[in-house]
From TrEMBL:
The Response regulatory domain, residue ranges: 7-126
Gene3D superfamilies referenced in this protein's UniProt entry, alphabetically: 1.10.8.60, 3.40.50.2300, Homeodomain-like (1.10.10.60), P-loop containing nucleotide triphosphate hydrolases (3.40.50.300)
Ranges where the Sigma-54 factor interaction domain occurs: 156-384
GO molecular function, a single term: sequence-specific DNA binding
One Pfam family named in its UniProt record: Response_reg
Residues with the 4-aspartylphosphate modification: D56
Keywords, ordered alphabetically: ATP-binding, Nucleotide-binding, Phosphoprotein, Transcription, Transcription regulation
Domain of life: Bacteria
Protein's organism: Deminuibacter soli
Protein's UniProt name: Sigma-54-dependent Fis family transcriptional regulator
GO biological process: phosphorelay signal transduction system; regulation of DNA-templated transcription
Amino acid sequence: MKKLPANILVIDDDVDILVSARLLLKQYFASVTVCDSPKELNELLSRNDFDIIMLDMNYQKGVNTGKEGLYWLKHILSINPKYIVVLMTAYGEVELAVECLKAGATDFVLKPWNVEKLIATMTTAYKLKTSNTKLEKAEQVQEKIQKDMHRGFDFVMSEAGEMRELLATIRKVAPTDANILILGENGTGKQVVAREIHQLSERAGEVFMHVDLGSLSNQLFESELFGYAKGAFTDAREDRAGRFELCSGGTIFLDEIGNLPLHLQAKLLHVLQNRTVTRLGESKERSIDVRLLCATNMPLEEMVGRGEFREDLLYRINTVELRLPPLRNRKADIPVLVQHFLASYNTKYRKQLSVSKDAMAAILHYHWPGNVRELQHVIERAVIMAEGEEITEKDISIKQVQQTIKVPVDNLDLEEMEQLMIRKALDKHKGNISKAATELGLTRAALYRRMEKFNL
Ligand SMILES: Nc1ncnc2c1ncn2[C@@H]1O[C@H](COP(=O)(O)OP(=O)(O)OP(=O)(O)O)[C@@H](O)[C@H]1O
């Protein structure tokens, strides 16, 4: 028979009872700790994460009032009201047992016990513990999910051109449990890709937890990620699980990992190596089972060279590295993304707009410093502003199109100069190929060839 993964503590001053409880329970449950004095409770509870505590009612020879048991029951529940306590009472102590149930005990067993009844009681108590934990986790996770609800995280990517290989890699690595580091400029879609990986993994039915490390202060970083015990700091009014515990079974996405200060990098490394977390203000370690995805727009390898990022942490997080190219280098994605955003904003603003050829040409020739995020905003604004049936070039408010590109006079790299001049001409003429070609003294075909060469 498969043992239940329960961690049980049995407290009784009668050593014979402890020996037989241990022998019996070990056959059905993963871990059984025994102790002959409730005075050791504080120490035991601070070091271990017990699922069920089996507590005797009397600890002094000749005293059978059960008052001591009631006292220790209350003591345990004052440490954490969520503890599952099963009491051991003798025949004739029914009134006392009822009093204990009112005080918060989960159940009681009669001594001497009937083996089947004892195992059934302990199994039910363990199921109650796990469903309470799931409920607690669900409530806390719900809060985080609610925040994400209004955001659209549909993932679209062209199957053509530059992105084909990247898509293939995403599909290949997603179902594995490999740690993945996603690199790319701001707004290139690192978070969308992380969510897609989670969706394509075996953990899809579990939680996806996004943690923006860039927005957490040092103090918050530890309590948010690892949780805390009541009283660990001034505002810690109750025990709270951290994000790692909350998403156990699922995926954790550490965004902006490059912002993590060195001393916290060491803590994170410890968690990843041991697959356990210790809540602030506690000493016991709790196991976690999470898949790790990280993202950054910072050059982590250079940071390792400068001593700003731990090399051992880098190797732990980048089993697979995905580089999301900036939007300007993945032109095949632009029409797909435009249609995607157009469809969703048409629905949102109750319109049926399409994009005119001129507008699409301008979009294709812009260099999108803000990447997909900027494109999304531009399309939303255009949908709002457009008056006819089409989005025209004038609805596409790409301010930077008009900005002058400075040609560095000390740069003598001919290819780079050529690229800059072409971009400058295209910007000046808002993506109009004929006008840009005339200005550059090239035929349209020659300009197209160069644009292809430079991926413009
Ligand atoms: N491939 C994509 N398909 C659909 N939407 C996308 C895609 N890539 C990006 N987006 C949209 O662009 C916006 C920015 O994406 P996301 O937040 O994933 O980028 P990021 O690289 O994580 O940005 P930052 O580095 O600034 O946090 C989001 O609103 C997202 O929905």
